[in-house]
Write a structure and sequence with these properties.
alpha+beta; DNA-binding; 5-stranded antiparallel sheet; transcription regulation; DNA-binding transcription factor activity; WRKY_dom; WRKY domain-containing protein; 5 strands; 5 helices; single chain; about 210 residues
DNA sequence: CGCATTTGACCTGCGC
DNA sequence: GCGCAGGTCAAATGCG
């Protein structure tokens, strides 16, 4: 959205009396012979109404100017954000191009998943956007397993993948994967013996972990 | 001693 | 069908 795309002016008619047409002028001439007393009464009423209308129109006009200014500021901020997003996206694509030859073409789904994570971060989403897309494309898979993700800040010096999220988890495995130098940890819910919930903790940057709940 | 964590082995699924 | 990589299991180990 650009400010040039939208006509921010409300195009308020601040002087409606300009647009009186010729027929109305003729009609007024025809009534010139009427008594002056009636005319004066009507004139007094008209003047009071006109002054009120002009006052109202002035108020609306000022409001219109203020809104135009606010809209201009909003458009400017939007353009700045859009530029920032474009920069981040281009940086990300460069990074992907550099890493693509290293990452095996196998486990394609996993690699795509990881890039979606980065995209989600760039887009400012805390929830992966891919999950929404997948839900429309592959509804049957989502019926089987519902995976949600959360991003968790961590210290760069903290090598443990233990996340205190208020639930009881038992770590049952840890694995180093090719697409990420830092290991990923696998946890099972230990809140109840029959609890089927699992979570996977992956450190995607030194200060950020992604937790995938299954 | 009991529980949680670690870690190497095994299983499973996907791509070629 | 084979090889590879992610996911899981279970014995070993550590800690309170």
């Amino acid at each position: 959205m650009d400010s040039s795309w939208v006509n921010t002016s409300l195009d308020l008619n601040i002087n409606p009396f300009k647009h009186v047409n010729e027929t109305q002028a003729q009609e007024s001439k025809e009534f010139e012979g009427y008594s002056t007393r009636v005319e004066q009464k009507v004139q007094v009423k008209k003047e009071a109404g006109v002054s009120a209308l002009v006052e109202e129109l002035n108020r609306v006009n000022i409001e219109n100017q203020k809104l135009t200014e606010v809209l201009g500021v909003v458009c400017e901020k939007y353009l700045t954000l859009q530029k920032h997003l474009a920069d981040l996206t281009s940086k990300n694509s460069e990074k992907e191009l550099m890493t693509t030859p290293v990452i095996s073409m196998k486990r394609k789904a996993e690699s795509e998943d990881y890039s979606n994570v980065i995209n989600a971060i760039n887009g400012g989403n805390t929830e992966s956007s891919s999950s929404d897309e997948d839900s429309s494309k592959r509804p049957q898979e989502n019926l089987k397993t519902k995976i949600s993700r959360a991003y968790f800040p961590t210290n760069a010096s903290d090598t443990s993948l233990v996340v205190r999220d208020g639930y009881q988890w038992r770590k049952y495995g840890q694995k180093v994967t090719r697409d990420n130098p830092s290991p990923r940890a696998y946890f099972k819910c230990s809140f109840a013996p029959s609890c089927p919930v699992k979570k996977k903790v992956i450190k995607i940057t030194p200060v950020l972990m992604i937790i995938a709940y299954d």
